[in-house]
């Protein structure tokens, strides 16, 4: 939604408009919290239990603690945190609210109401609150009042990338309206073919007077400052000074850290008046790794038992279509570089390698496609049942055994074969630090529609940014992606 300068601008009306986003998210949190408790209470009554409204209604008011904590954590600000971090914060605030109820009951020595209601409400709220927030963002993020009017400062290759991203992701909360062009900052030519061209739809601002005019029209605003690595010092200083002086919110984007060299989980640290970034090494924390392994074991055991009849039906379909074993074992590289043997449903004919070589010999134009990504869009080796299993990723369900055995994780980098090590380059050292996963960022980000370089980047990003909340987010997104079959072949 483009920004427009209006001659009938009213500051009070503009501030009220910008606060709609905060009020909408606040209402979503309250509806999710109170609605979950209400529904759990109704279910208890329907199943023969009893509810005392005189006890539960006053205690339900403690749920307001969660929105208060969310406000202090900045979850109603114009720029939301990364999704894993938002999940973590929402989980903490929801738990604090229910913990407040528990403390009140303990200190008040009152008659205990139904503890089942509070236990189930707390557990369900941990998932319902983020889901309702996501639905609200999807519904309203394209409205003009959702995003904060933003001016883009700086130049360089990162500019078109930022424009393209924010143009497609309204939920980020930053609505690009204008770009400040300073004579102290010479424009650099875009020399990278992988970087999209600028949209050229942003209103140019050339001096401080233009910036002040923008700020008057949009009192709630943001400055997005690209800290170009090759820019003169005078340019950088001018951009920071102007942005800090005029804008209510300022976001600094160092261009030399834009390629993922620095992990996401960092916090600012000052050493001798020098800004530093402290990296949180989650993968070296044995407590977090134990929690991840515990989640893998419990979820794969429960899930495996639940879908056992479904696995039997798939095995029967494979047997009925073609001769050969139901399962297929393949050597892959696991944690610490160890060779593991992952289990899959067989999706190819028995003489798959022979069929592939004959096909490539007859169609030499497809050899380049095979050598680029080790995949063919129309692979002649795949059976009809196998094609369905691959499109839906059902062929990978037997890997639950690998997860139970401790060779794989539910979430992690895509398991690779030995020939792919050279393609990972320096990223292979990071790859070896974790167990490969049944699903991961690659699977929910486009799968086979992505290049191999993008796949390696996603694996490295996951390893550097790993957290329990990121795993939960990926697991939650996996099912919709699988059902949508995007990038699957």
Describe the secondary structure blueprint for this structure.
Layout: H1 11-46, H2 53-60, H3 65-72, H4 83-108, H5 115-140, E1 148-153, H6 158-168, E2 174-180, E3 203-205, H7 208-217, E4 222-227, H8 233-246, E5 250-254, E6 266-271, E7 274-279, H9 286-306, H10 308-321, E8 327-333, E9 339-345, H11 352-362, H12 367-373, H13 384-392, H14 400-405, E10 409-411, H15 421-424, H16 427-431, E11 437-439, H17 441-444, H18 452-465, H19 468-484
Parallel strand pairs: 1-2, 1-4, 2-3, 4-5, 10-11
Antiparallel strand pairs: 6-7, 8-9
> Strand order across the biggest sheet?
3-2-1-4-5
Total beta strands: 11
| Beta-strand proportion | 5-15%
Q: Extract low-pLDDT stretches.
A: 6-13, 188-199
Cα Rg:
27 Å
Name the structural class: alpha/beta
Provide the helix percentage. Answer: 40-55%
Task: Walk me through what this model shows.
The protein has 489 residues and is of the alpha/beta class. It folds into 3 domains: 11-140, no CATH class; 148-259, Rossmann fold; 286-347 and 382-484, no CATH class. Helix content is 51%, strand content 12%. The protein is built from 19 helices and 11 strands. The strands form 4 sheets. The chain has a 5-stranded parallel β-sheet with strand order 3-2-1-4-5, with helices on both faces. A hairpin with a 5-residue loop joins strand 8 and strand 9 (339-345). Helix 4 (83-108) packs antiparallel against helix 5 (115-140). The radius of gyration is 27 Å and the shape is globular. It starts with 10 loop residues before the first helix and ends in a 5-residue tail after the last helix.
């Amino acid at each position: 939604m483009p920004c427009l300068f209006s001659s009938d601008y009213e500051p009070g009306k503009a501030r009220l408009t910008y606060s709609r986003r905060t009020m909408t998210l606040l209402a979503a949190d309250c509806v999710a919290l109170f609605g979950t408790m209400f529904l759990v209470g109704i279910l208890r009554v329907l199943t023969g239990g009893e509810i005392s409204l005189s006890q539960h209604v006053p205690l339900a008011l403690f749920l307001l603690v969660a929105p208060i904590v969310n406000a202090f954590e900045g979850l109603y600000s114009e720029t939301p945190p990364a999704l894993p971090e938002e999940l973590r914060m929402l989980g903490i605030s929801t738990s604090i609210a229910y913990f407040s109820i528990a403390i009140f009951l303990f200190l008040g020595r009152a008659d205990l109401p139904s503890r089942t209601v509070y236990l189930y409400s707390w557990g369900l709220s941990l998932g319902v609150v983020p889901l309702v927030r996501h639905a609200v963002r999807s519904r309203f993020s394209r409205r003009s009042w959702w995003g904060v009017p933003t001016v883009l400062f700086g130049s360089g290759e990162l500019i078109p990338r930022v424009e393209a991203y924010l143009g497609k992701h309204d939920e980020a909360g930053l609505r690009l309206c204008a770009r400040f062009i300073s004579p102290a900052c010479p424009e650099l030519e875009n020399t990278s073919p992988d970087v999209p061209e600028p949209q050229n739809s942003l209103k140019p601002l050339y001096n401080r007077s233009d910036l002040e005019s923008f700020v008057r029209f949009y009192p709630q605003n943001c400055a997005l400052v690209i800290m170009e690595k090759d820019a003169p010092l005078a340019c950088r200083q001018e951009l920071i000074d102007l942005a800090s002086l005029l804008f209510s919110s300022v976001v600094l984007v160092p261009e030399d850290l834009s390629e993922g060299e620095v992990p996401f989980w960092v916090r600012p640290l000052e050493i001798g008046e020098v800004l530093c970034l402290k990296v949180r090494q989650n993968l070296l924390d044995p407590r977090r790794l134990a929690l991840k392994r515990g989640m893998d074991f419990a979820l794969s055991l429960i899930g495996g038992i639940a879908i056992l009849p479904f696995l039997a039906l798939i095995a029967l379909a494979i047997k009925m279509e073609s001769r050969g074993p139901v399962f297929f074992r393949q050597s892959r590289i696991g944690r610490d570089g160890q060779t593991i043997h992952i289990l899959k449903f067989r999706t190819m004919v028995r003489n798959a390698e022979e069929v592939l070589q004959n096909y490539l010999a007859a169609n030499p134009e497809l050899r380049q496609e095979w050598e680029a990504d080790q995949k063919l869009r129309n692979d002649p080796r795949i059976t009809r049942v196998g094609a369905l299993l691959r499109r839906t990723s059902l062929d990978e369900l037997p890997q639950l055994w690998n997860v139970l055995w401790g060779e794989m994780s539910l979430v992690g980098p895509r398991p690779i074969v030995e020939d792919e090590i050279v393609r990972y380059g320096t990223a292979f050292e990071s790859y070896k630090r974790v167990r490969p996963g049944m699903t991961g960022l690659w699977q929910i980000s486009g799968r086979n529609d992505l290049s191999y370089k993008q796949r390696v980047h996603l694996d490295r990003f996951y390893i550097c940014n790993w957290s329990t909340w990121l795993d939960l987010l990926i697991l939650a997104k996996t099912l919709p992606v699988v059902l949508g079959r995007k990038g699957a072949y």
